[in-house]
Amino acid sequence: MKKSEKFFSTLLEEWLEQTKEQVKHSTYCKYEQITRLHLKPYFKSIDCALISQEIILAFYESLNQDPSNEKKLSTTSLRCVCMILNRTLGYGYEHGYLQLRLKLSPKLSRDRHLVRVFSKENQSLLEQYLFDHPSLYACAILLALYSGIRIGELCALRYDDLNLADGYLKIVRTVQRSVVISQQKANHKKTELVISEPKSKNAYRLIPLPNFIIVFLKEHLLFSESHPYLFSKSGITPLDPRTLQYFYKNTLEKIQVPYLNFHCLRHTFATRCITLGWDIRTLSEILGHADIKITMEYYFHSSMEYKKIQMQKFKPLIQCAG
Fold first, then answer.
1. Which of 52, 67, 206, 218 would suit a FRET pair with 136, their CA atoms being 20 to 30 Å apart?
2. Which of 147-156, 192-201, 265-274 has the lowest mean pLDDT?
3. CA-based max dimension of the chain
4. Distance CA 235, CA 313 (A)
5. Cβ 126 vs Cβ 138: under 8 Å
6. Which is more confidently placed, 57 or 180?
7. pLDDT-based confidence at 178, cuts 50/70/90?
8. Dihedral sign of CA atoms 312, 314, 319, 321 in order
9. What are the residue boundaries of the structural domains of the chain, listed by start?
């Protein structure tokens, strides 16, 4: 087949394949899913020679008009679609399949992040239950609530990642359940646990722990080379995040606390840190954010509890009469 006769959907597959070794497995899975669901169906029978700015713009306009989409794509997803399309366009131009260097540059507003956290009352109920019913999973949830680590980082912790003598833990890996691309079928997706590096270079970090958490972990966790993964019952493989999420959800139901997803433990930790007066740099490093601006955007701009505390610091400048 001549270069001019290649379908653009095939070009998308080629770009994906050459990107596979350059990104983390979880990132590749995300790219593959977006390409399969949103890009390939539109471009499946369009020859590279026919690709034009008009076709690209028509594709973008079609994204949120497809009746098969149950809900509109988020700004984050739209941004990822555009990134994949633009990199494939660049790949096609560099390899001679496209005659013009084309690019899709929509003006996308930023999603406003709504941070949901546990109230102090509900956090107290959760903590009381976990302290009263100690287990591997109770330890995991309390550690998340008082360190702010992500669920993948938590489930991938090994016995030598916790230095309880000096009171800190280190984050050097994460785990998540990912789709096995080669075995993906229309109505069934095979998945597997994948251990990988943390989310970014800033996600490699040391986190000091509160003393009461250290005491609780010492009492209820097994630290042994023969049981390397801390929160897995087998100890041989990491804890499946879905297993921990299931236990967490059932615990909230038992104590009749409204459900917030597991990541809200991280949000709750960060919000409590702010109300305690932590400085932004320290909090950002503890959370492992790639940029301090992320911490500012998520927490300092979103915490109603923090805003209320700050507002109550006002005192009248004059003595109120009566």
1. 206
2. 192-201
3. 91
4. 49
5. no
6. 57
7. confident
8. negative
9. 3-94, 120-309
Residues 50 and 219 sit within 8 Å (Cβ to Cβ)? no
Find the helix or strand (DSSP H, E) in which 194 lies. Answer: strand 191-196
Residue 310 — very low, low, confident or very high, per pLDDT cuts 50/70/90? confident
Q: Which long-range contacts (CB under 8 A, 24 or more apart) does 218-221 make?
A: 218/164, 219/134, 220/134, 220/135, 220/136, 220/138, 220/139, 221/136, 221/139, 221/162
Give the pLDDT confidence of 105-127 residue by residue, as tens digits. Answer: 887 766 666 788 999 999 999 99
Q: Say which amino acid occupies 62.
A: S
Separation between Cα atoms, residue 22 and residue 240, nearest integer Å: 26
192-226 per-residue burial string, b: 16 or more CB within 10 A, e: under 16: ebbebebbeebbebebebeeebbebbeeebeeeee
What would the two tokens of residue 41 be?
């169906």
Please state which CATH class domain 3-94 belongs to. Answer: mainly alpha
C-alpha distances in Å from residue 23, one per residue of 197, 234, 254, 289:
11, 30, 41, 19
Q: CATH for 120-309?
A: 1.10.443.10
- Give the burial string for 227-239 (b: 16+ CB within 10 Å, else e): bbbbbbeebeebb
- Least confident range from 131-145, 221-235, 274-288: namely 221-235
